[in-house]
Write a structure and sequence with these properties.
single chain
């Protein structure tokens, strides 16, 4: 097994150092350039017939679409960043911005997804079968029993 490590020759990068640095920092350079373009667009006057807040919102959501498509930032970070930037840039009040996400159905579905993620992460596949009394398989560990009890018998 040790011979497998030495069978492959070591690849040496013969490019100049400045080219290696540019190659390894290309993603950060794109983000910095995109940020500069957004700042320049924010400083421009809005087109006639469009309010300043509307113009800034169009720029922000255009930037969000670009970040989603390009993948420069993870999708979750981009989504949260766009939601947080609305009040930070003065486009909309924070209370009004976050009230748009406060529908009861949204939180119900979000809670269902959180429970589903916790159930699939903590329990092995087929846990209802293994937890049934008729099953001869081993019982779940203390963490699974604790989570199962907390799920059906909440403390508060």
């Amino acid at each position: 097994m040790e011979n497998d490590l030495f069978d492959k020759p070591l690849k040496i990068d013969n490019r100049p150092m400045w080219l290696i640095v540019i190659d390894h920092t290309a993603r950060y350079q794109l983000i910095a350039g995109f940020l500069v373009i957004c700042i320049i667009l924010f400083r421009l006057a809005p087109p006639p017939g469009l309010s300043l807040n509307g113009y800034h919102a169009v720029i922000l959501f255009g930037a969000t679409i670009f970040l989603w498509v390009s993948g420069l930032l993870p999708i979750a970070v981009t989504a949260l960043l766009s939601m947080v930037m609305l009040p930070l840039l003065g486009i909309m009040e924070a209370k009004k911005t976050y009230a748009l996400f406060g529908n009861e159905a949204v939180f119900f579905i979000l809670g269902a997804f959180i429970l589903a993620a916790a159930m699939t992460a903590d329990f092995p596949p087929g846990w209802p079968v293994r937890c049934s009394p008729a099953s001869a398989r081993p019982r779940p560990g203390w963490r699974q029993r604790f989570f199962y009890c907390r799920l059906f018998f909440p403390l508060s």
